């Protein structure tokens, strides 16, 4: 017996979702281990903890509900997952929308930090994020009203509103990802042009590119593009991508939070940071070294060297001035 269209995709989606969630769970545990070890409790640390906690709750809720729907579908005729506007489907959609909004806000925060806290840089991303929040509220309203009223017209609006929401999300992420990636790559090129070694011998070019992809959350941006393409084409593959989105977002941003907590992320001004901010980097000219050396030498006290000459008993008549010879005054600045 052939299955109805979309059933296979609906079963494959939770499978990949649980696989990625396992990776995300390991990264989330590492995040909380670093949070517990960190003694300072500044505003940035509290924000990272709040973001990580909210993401973990929402992603876990969606994963549990999708797994429950997968198991419950075996007891229904035709292995049907149910309508989009049923209660489990509504909760999973709301969780996905909230995770995307939290991720967009965190992307703007990272852009703000990487660009040395310049407010003008994040004006466009903030406007896009506000628009996205409005679209998210509208999508959740349509979803909830379609459940409570059972209106078929509202249910037909769900795919369109979700597509618009992800389109605005993609625009926000393209802006933030482009700004972060440009800043990091530009910094590496500047340091390389100055002759500064920016990575160890064991770091290859591919690892550097991977670091840029992770820190700019480009992986999150890349998964939004096929979602919009599938929504436009109308293929059921979108079910798989939507199920994979939430744990993928959690995994990517957990890596960023780990890097920020360890102080190894670009733009972090910590004692353990392995990156150098270009605003604090300066190469001294040769004449500056000469002036600095002369200044230090001028402040040093002169050293008097006194040479005493011992005589034999056969020459007692030599004057006392020959017994103590002052050869010279020695200054360290003249010693080459």
Structure write-up:
- This protein is mainly alpha-helical and 336 residues long.
- It has two domains: 7-280, Up-down Bundle (Rhopdopsin 7-helix transmembrane proteins), CATH 1.20.1070; 286-334, no CATH class.
- Helices cover 67% and strands 4% of the residues.
- It has nine helices and two strands.
- It has helices at 7-37, 43-72, 87-114, 123-149, 152-193, 205-215, 218-233, 237-262, 286-298; strands spanning 303-308, 324-330.
- The protein has a two-stranded antiparallel ribbon with strand order 1-2.
- α1 runs parallel beside α8 and α3 runs parallel beside α8 (237-262).
- It starts with 6 loop residues before the first helix and ends in a 6-residue tail after the last strand.
- Mean pLDDT is 75; it is low at 270-290, 292-301 and 307-336.
- Keywords: Membrane, Transmembrane, Transmembrane helix.
- The chain crosses the membrane at residues 12-35, 47-71, 91-109, 121-144, 164-185, 206-229, 235-260.
Quick tags:
single chain, Rhopdopsin 7-helix transmembrane proteins, 2 domains, two-stranded antiparallel ribbon, disordered C terminus, membrane, transmembrane
Instruction: Report the major sheet.
Output: 2 strands, antiparallel
The total beta strand count reads 2
Number of domains: 2
CATH topology of the largest domain, anyone?
Rhopdopsin 7-helix transmembrane proteins
Approximately how much beta-strand content do the residues carry?
under 5%
Structural class: mainly alpha
User: What is the CA-atom radius of gyration, in angstroms?
Assistant: 33 Å
Widest beta sheet: strand line-up: 1-2
Keywords: Membrane, Transmembrane, Transmembrane helix
Transmembrane segments: 12-35, 47-71, 91-109, 121-144, 164-185, 206-229, 235-260
């Amino acid at each position: 017996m052939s299955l109805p269209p979309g059933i296979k995709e609906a079963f494959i989606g939770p499978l990949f979702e649980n696989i990625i969630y396992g990776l995300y769970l390991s990264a989330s545990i590492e995040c909380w281990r670093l949070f517990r070890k960190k003694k300072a409790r500044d505003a940035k640390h509290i924000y990272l903890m709040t973001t990580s906690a909210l993401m973990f709750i929402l992603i876990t809720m969606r994963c549990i509900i999708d797994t429950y729907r997968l198991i419950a579908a075996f007891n229904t005729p035709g292995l049907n997952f149910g309508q989009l506007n049923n209660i489990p489907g509504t909760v999973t959609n709301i969780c996905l929308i909230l995770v995307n909004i939290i991720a967009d806000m965190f992307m703007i925060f990272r852009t703000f930090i990487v660009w040395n806290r310049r407010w003008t840089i994040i004006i466009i991303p903030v406007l896009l994020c506000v628009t996205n929040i409005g679209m998210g509220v509208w999508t959740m309203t349509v979803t909830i009203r379609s459940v409570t009223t059972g209106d078929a017209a509202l249910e037909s609006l769900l795919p369109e509103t979700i597509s618009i929401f992800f389109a605005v999300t993609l625009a926000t992420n393209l802006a933030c990802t482009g700004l972060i990636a440009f800043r990091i790559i530009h910094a590496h090129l500047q340091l390389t042009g100055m002759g500064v070694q920016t990575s160890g011998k064991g770091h290859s070019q591919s690892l550097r590119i991977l670091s840029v992809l992770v820190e700019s959350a480009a992986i999150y941006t890349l998964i939004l593009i096929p979602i919009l393409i599938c929504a436009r084409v109308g293929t059921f593959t979108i079910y798989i991508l939507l199920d994979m989105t939430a744990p993928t977002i959690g995994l990517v941003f957990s890596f960023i939070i780990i890097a920020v907590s360890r102080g190894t992320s670009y733009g972090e001004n910590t004692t353990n940071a392995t990156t150098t901010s270009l605003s604090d980097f300066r190469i001294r000219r040769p004449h500056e070294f000469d002036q600095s050396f002369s200044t230090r030498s001028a402040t040093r006290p002169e050293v008097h060297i006194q040479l005493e000459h011992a005589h034999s008993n056969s020459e007692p008549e030599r004057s006392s001035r020959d017994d103590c010879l002052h050869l010279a005054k020695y200054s360290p600045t003249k010693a080459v």
